[in-house]
Specification:
This protein has helices at 2-14, 121-129, 242-247; strands spanning 19-22, 34-35, 43-46, 49-56, 61-69, 96-100, 103-118, 155-163, 169-179, 189-190, 195-198, 204-214, 217-218, 221-222, 228-237, 249-251, 258-262, 266-271, 277-283, 286-290, 297-305, 308-316. It has 317 residues and is mostly beta strands. The protein has two domains: 2-12 and 240-316, Immunoglobulin-like, CATH 2.60.40; 18-237, Jelly Rolls, CATH 2.60.120. The chain has a five-stranded antiparallel beta barrel with strand order 4-5-6-15-7. Strands 19-18-21-22 form a four-stranded antiparallel β-sheet. It has a three-stranded antiparallel β-sheet with strand order 16-17-20, with no helix packed on it. A hairpin with a 2-residue loop joins β3 and β4. The longest helix has 13 residues, at 2-14. The two termini are 13 Å apart.
């Protein structure tokens, strides 16, 4: 029993509030290289956060999601250089990530604080000079040389959408990677430095979803290369919410066969004293947990809601 109580105490301590920064420095790269998913792993984890990836093995190219890189190439235009940040380095170190669609999974509800963003070399040079598909920003003509109706008032922006454990939208933050709509054209810009973007308005989230939009569109959709670079994703674990905890009813407790849980809408997990998940599920208010096969002892019931996390101790006899 002492051993179990000690394990429970250590497990509870592991839930202490913490702030984390994803720098991608925990990922190994040789100098001036990148990882693109060609090893079939379908994603990677950095700083406790999962980044999805897809790779087309029929045509041998990165086809979506995230990669990580330390490429310094800020001069090569075109899709063959889709792995480089236009800054030539990460925000505070060599490593950074590049997005081409795909979402971020924090694996639990967190409070996101901020993220550092910049353009990729591919997107920046396309907007700056134009290419076979994308127009030169500020021009009244599209890539085919036809008047496009924008009057040169071009823009390229990123929508960062927060989603909770049930995938419901919490809020959206918009960041302009390029903006040519100013009355004074000297203020027009294409982002070429790392910019810190405040994400606190998103509140408690499980996922981050990214969507790129541009004023340069054609019959096939957006012509501007749909890439951006990211670094220094700062997030914190949700604090325990005593008000939510007080509203949770668990009965009978102790129990030999099942617990009935009455709570707010959210996501439920039960951990044993060693931090292993015994069961997990979404709830809209009331749920029954079958514990008949569990070993006798103490367990932690955790409920994650949009307002925070609450935990209660339950006992299996």
């Amino acid at each position: 029993m002492k051993k179990m109580l000690l394990s429970a105490a250590l497990f509870a301590a592991a839930f202490a509030n913490a702030q984390n920064t994803v720098t991608f420095d925990d990922l190994t790269l040789t100098p001036n290289s990148y990882w693109d998913g060609s090893d079939s792993t379908l994603g990677f984890t950095s700083g406790g956060v999962y980044f999805e990836n897809s790779y087309n093995f029929d045509w041998d190219y990165w086809s979506g999601g995230f990669i990580y890189s330390n490429s310094t190439d800020i001069t090569t235009a075109g899709y063959t250089n889709d792995f480089s940040a236009f800054t030539g380095t990460g925000s505070s170190s060599a490593n950074y990530a590049v997005n081409y669609g795909g979402n971020i999974d924090f694996n639990a509800a967190v409070l996101v604080n901020s993220i550092d963003l910049t353009n990729t070399t591919y997107a920046a040079l396309s907007m700056l000079n134009g290419d076979s598909y994308g127009k030169q920003f500020g021009s009244t003509l599209d890539a085919n040389g036809d008047v496009d109706g924008t009057n040169g008032e071009d823009w390229f922006r990123l929508l960062i959408v927060g989603r909770d454990a049930n995938s419901a939208v919490t809020d959206t933050v918009i960041f302009y990677l390029a903006d040519y709509r100013f009355a004074d054209s000297t203020q027009d810009y294409i982002v070429d430095t790392w910019e810190t973007v405040d994400l606190s308005a998103l509140g408690s989230v499980r996922y981050l979803e990214f969507t790129l939009e541009s004023s340069d569109v054609g019959n096939a959709g957006m012509n501007t290369p749909a890439y951006f670079a990211l670094d220094n994703l700062v997030y914190g674990t949700l604090g325990l919410n005593e008000e939510i905890a007080a509203s949770i009813l668990v009965y009978p407790n102790p129990s030999t066969s099942e617990f009935t849980v009455e709570s707010r809408e959210g996501f439920v997990r039960v951990f044993n004293a060693y931090g292993q998940v015994m069961t997990s599920f979404s709830t809209t208010g009331q749920q029954t947990i079958n514990c008949s096969e569990w070993k006798a002892g103490s367990y932690i019931l955790e409920i994650e809601t949009s307002e925070g996390i609450a935990r209660k101790s339950i006992i299996k006899n």
